[in-house]
Amino acid sequence: MLYEILEGMKYSHKIGVEALIIAVLVFALTVLAGKIMIPVLRAKKLNQPINSYVAEHASKSGTPTMGGICFIIASLVVMLVWVLLESGGYIGKFGKAGALVPLALTLCLGVGNAMIGFIDDYKKLVKKENEGLSEVQKLILQIIVAAAYLFMMGLTDNLPTSFHIPFSNIHLQLGFFAYPIYLLVIVGFVNSTNITDGLDGLASSVGIAVAAGIVCMSILSVRWFLVTAPVSDRYTAVVGASLLGALLGFLVFNHYPAKVFMGDTGSLYIGGIVMGCAISSGEFLAVIIMSLVFVLDMLSSLLQRLYFKATHGKRLFKKAPVHHHFQLLNWTEIKIVTVFFIVSVIFTALGVIGAII
Q1: Where are the alpha helices (DSSP H) in the chain?
Q2: Using CA atoms in the order 54, 57, 61, 64, what is the torsion angle rounded to 10 degrees?
């Protein structure tokens, strides 16, 4: 067993090594998948239709999309192997089927949303325009996936109904009301990761910061609060590490100028995995703090729409979501992505600190 090989290390350090191994394996497999699949996507002319709303992106026409398939497959393959080894007792000491349920459901939440994104991407490619599923169709499907996830989490007694308030020892007990709150936030959040995927490397880099924060939070929680729930924290670290390695590997191809876009397939997967980790870890609000760049980018788009209607045509931002606003201020894509990443790292650090204090 891996943990027997690492005998002598602190438990939190063992989890760190395990997470590192998973991240490296997923990274390598994502890069391999990208090198194989991107030429295929290009040959099949599966190119991203460019929205006329963003005229600045006209030069990106011809860039293949649906690249999220690369890192999703890589993540799932590594996680499947890990689950089999864990269940067989070849890694840790906690390979009980029941303990693996939240991990499996988190992956299902990610894959379920990725399937919605795949349908959306495919319809765009068929139509040869930047319109796939309608907003209503996408919303209904997202609600169904989120509701199914919450139902299964509740059915298996794995759904926390209390929120830990970051930077305090307070746990807010919500009981049944946790379900509609979770549902609302899951659906809103997966759309926020989708909206943020508007510049080369933006969603990938922000997602890297959040995934790293989830891993760090889980490891530090185990180190400081070992008597609470080491199994759930360890499994959250494992899933977070798989997302971290996936996005690092994808960024190899997605940084400016992007060789491939992740599409809704990839961006909705990110949202699903992050929300699954947030809920199963019991640190829902802390992960929201880590993810505030995603959330604020989505809110900028919502506020723009509401302000436009309320003022009969006036705009709050030059263009929404807000990363396009900065483009019209003559910021380069590299500068925008770098600043957003740095801000995301700051929010992530605050979220981690808030979770463990």
Answers
A1: 2-5, 11-43, 68-87, 101-127, 135-155, 178-196, 202-224, 230-254, 263-281, 284-290, 292-310, 322-328, 333-356
A2: -100
Residue 255 has pLDDT above 90, yes or no: yes
Pairwise CA distance, residues 45 & 27, whole Å:
26
At 226, the pLDDT band (50, 70, 90 cuts) reads very low
Q: Report d(CA 67, CA 58) in Å as an integer.
A: 19
d(CA 132, CA 128): 10
Q: Are 333 and 197 in contact (CB under 8 A)?
A: no
Other C-beta atoms closer than 10 Å to the C-beta of 166 total 21
pLDDT of residue 90: 76
Confirm if 271 and 145 have CB atoms less than 8 A apart: no
Q: Residue 125: which residues within 8 A CB-CB, separation 6 or more?
A: 46, 47, 49, 65, 66
Least Cα distance to 67 among 198, 210, 254, 256 occurs for 254
In sequence order, which residues have a C-beta less than 8 Å from that of residue 139 and are 6 or more positions away?
A: 187
Residue 236 is predicted with a pLDDT of 94
- What six digits make up the tokens of 338? 């770098």
Do residues 96 and 104 make contact, with C-beta atoms less than 8 angstroms apart? Answer: no
Q: For residue 256, give every residue at least 6 positions away whose Cβ sits within 8 Å of its Cβ, in sequence order, or none.
A: 199, 200, 201, 333, 334, 337
The residue assigned the tokens 């959250």 is 236
Strands 162-164 and 171-173: antiparallel
CB 90 within 8 A of CB 1: yes
End-to-end, the C-alpha distance of the chain in Å comes to: 33
Q: Would you say the C-alpha torsion 207, 209, 212, 216 has a positive or negative sign?
A: negative
Q: What does the alpha-carbon distance between residue 353 and residue 340 come to, in Å, rounded to a whole number?
A: 20
User: What confidence tens digit (pLDDT) does each residue in 75-104 have?
Assistant: 999 999 999 988 887 786 555 566 789 999
Q: Is 340 helix (H, G, I), strand (E, B) or coil?
A: helix
173: helix, strand or coil: strand
Q: Token pair of 173, please? A: 């007990």
**pTM attached to this predicted model:** 0.93
